[in-house]
TrEMBL record:
This is Uncharacterized protein LOC117545361. Pfam families: ALKBH8_N (PF09004). Residues 64-105 form the Alkylated DNA repair protein AlkB homologue 8 N-terminal domain. One of its GO terms (molecular function) is methyltransferase activity. It comes from Gymnodraco acuticeps. It comes from the Eukaryota. The lineage of its organism: Eukaryota, Metazoa, Chordata, Craniata, Vertebrata.
Amino acid sequence: MWRQTACHKLNNLALNTKKTKEVIVDFRRNKDGTHSPVHLSGEEVERVTSFKFLGVHISEDLSWTTNTSALVKKAHKRIFFLRKLAKLRLSSQVLMNLYRCTIESILSTCISVWYGNCTVKDKKSLQRVVKIAQRIIKMPLPSIASVYEKRCLRSARNIIRDSSHPNHTLFVPLRGTRSGTRYRSLPGRTNRTTHSFFPSAVRLLTMNPTLSHTA
C-alpha cells in the first residue's frame, strides 16, 4: 500500500482513511491464520464484511443476499407511491411507465453482475415485488429473470460488436455453424463461475440466436 500512498502524494491527492474499507475475499480451504491489517498514512483501514460500490452491495463471500435485500427494501418504498397514483385512476400505461422508471430500474441495477448467482430465496423476493406491482397496474409485467436475460444479451451483443473491448475475445464463434451464432462455452470449476456474467451470456446467446441480434 505504500506505493499507492506515494502515488497519491505525488499527484497531490489525499486518501480519506475513514471512508476507505477493506474486504477480504478468501475461498482457500486452508487459510493461514488471520490477514494483516492494512494501514494508510499510519492509520488502520477498517475491515468490513461488505461494502457498497456503484450502488451494488458486495459481500466477502460473494453472495448477493445483502444486495438483494437492499434493492427490495428500496423498491417497496416506491410501491407505496404506485398505489397512491393507482387510486387516482391513472391509466395502466402511465402506471406501467412509472413502474419501469422507478421500480424496475431499481430491481435491475447492475443485474447482469449478480442475478445469476442469487439464491432461489433472493430471486423469489425480487419477483414478489414485480407481482405486487402487477396487481396494482393490472397489466402483465416482465419477470426479473426475463429482464436479466435481456440485459445479458444486450451487453454481450455490445461486446461482440466492439472489437476493442477487453473481453471481446471471450465470445468465440464455433466453426462450422451456418448462422455463426453459436459460441464456445467458457469453462468453470465452480457454480459461482458458471453462473457469472460471461458464461451465462454465452449460454444465452447460444440458446437464443434470434434474441442475440435483437435484444
